[in-house]
Amino acid sequence: MSKPQNDLLSNALNAIATHRDLIHEVYSKGRYIKNGSKTDRDAYVLHQNRIFVSDGRDTYRLSSFITKFFDEVTQKQRLFELLGDNAGAQVNRISQLLDEYAKAVFAGRVEDADHVSAQFHDACADLSDTFSSGISKLLNQAETNFAVVNSIEAKTRQNEHYLRQARRFSDALESIDRFGIEQQFGAGYCDFEPLAISYRTLISDRKAEWHTEISRLLHFFETYLYRLRVIAPDVKRFRQFANFLQQNPGYELPELEETHHRPLWMMRAAGINPVAYSDVRDVSTFEYLREIASQLPAPKVVSVRERPPGHIERSANKPTETLRLQPHHVALYKFAKAASRSPTPLSALNWKRQHFPEIGVPDEIWLLLVINSKNSHREEFARLRHHRIERRGESRISMNLFVQDVMVHGS
Amino acid sequence: MFERVIFQLLEGAFICRVLHPDTFDFLCNEENLRSVEDFFAKIGRRVAKTSKQSGFYLVFSAYGEQERALIRSSYADIKNTLAPVVSFFNLVIRSTGQEDILMYGTAIEADTLIGKIDQDISLRNELQSLGTHFKAFSSDTTQRKLLDNIFKRLVNDGYLKLANPERAIYQVTSKIEYLLDVIKFIHETDETLKVGDEQPESETGSLI
Predict the structure, then answer these.
(1) Out of A35, A83, B110, B115, which residue is the most buried by the measure of CB atoms under 10 Å away?
(2) Closest chain A C-alpha to B141 CA, distance in angstroms
């Protein structure tokens, strides 16, 4: 690329980078109107770099090439997009460049031949891009049933438009074959090798794929168009009937007996819920039943192994364990017995000190054991009556009660 | 597959590519269709197609004594449900502006629909009135809940299929063509409608 060209490109790229917010705004809003602010200068710079085009004295728009690029990037759908119109002209251009290349080679103009070869590569890339992006957009249109429009007529017009676009692509594909570019490469009257590589990579190798996609699109658009045309009178009738119902909410269908002609819909057999049981006595059903049975999953077998009753094994080596009551348990039982026999209430603390002074249980714990013994289910404890001797703690705030002793006697 | 088709038809289902794609494909094969027809011929029924050929359903072969009561009951059902169903689809057309909603297979997005209805008071009133027709009110019925209840009813009645539960996208089934057949018949036979139908179609005239 020459230096002046390089400068122009870097200027344009710089302008895009510097003024990206303004470009974004103009792409979204559609135009920029001069308002005497500092931004007017930015718009002017973008206009100088052909990013904006002037639309009247005070208005700028984004260049159509850039808009198209942004549409591609954002997958924005426009109404009645022109997708395949350019394809035919691009195929013609490829054929023309091929002729031009041959002429330059025959005339011995090597530099011209190189230049045309580079242009041929670009033209192939352009055509390939037109086909790929156009087909992709058409597929998108087909999937979404085109942009939302208000009436079935508008939808039909949209469908017809995109059907035309798909046919243009189909024609362009046919014209590639008609020009016989591939045959010219092989004719041998000129060395087309540099061109053939680009052409085969960008176009020939992808032709079959494009052809399949376009056939699919044509089939879809034609079917959809047919359906739209068929349904149009129904839609009209439906809307008339809906309006009629709104105006006459009390409308009722005529009685069945009043109708002389019975169309198919009227003869509809409304649903029943059939339940079937096979007749196992019928020999003819045997094969069917066997087939069904063979498809049934095998039942899960659960085997229960009963264990034999166990027995106590007395081993001579095993040391004998003797269960013995704890000393405080013994003391508690004895105290209960003594209290139940005593004619007067028995002090738990005194009794412990007299009979089991070496039991190893502190007085507080002993009192706790005696108090808790009241909850025991054993008969000797349940019959006893407890009376706690308590004192209030010294602290006036805590208000704690301290159990000093428990007086126990039989009921 | 044969049994499934028989049972689906006997249950009153509309077999189309939206609702039952595999049984629909089975019936599209002429040989299969003939075997199903042969079976139903023995019990006085036959398989019919909707007017645009997108769905199969079961009809009685004759209008005899036995069939009369069943046909009458089926007709009474249509009489009761026709107005609300037509009003619902009309509401969808008015809200979204899409007349092609009446084509079988078209998708209806509940979120988009409620968004449009919310913006227009007349559409909101219409939805409320539809809720009464469909008996779709409950104790805590919001506009969205009401619409969901109506959708549920139409799914049960076979007009719609919940195609995408996460995004609440419904698809119109071939029963819509059955509904359009009913309306066509009413248009052709009921004189009451012809009174209001006499507006001449607008024609595009030349400027000069």
Answers:
(1) A83
(2) 24
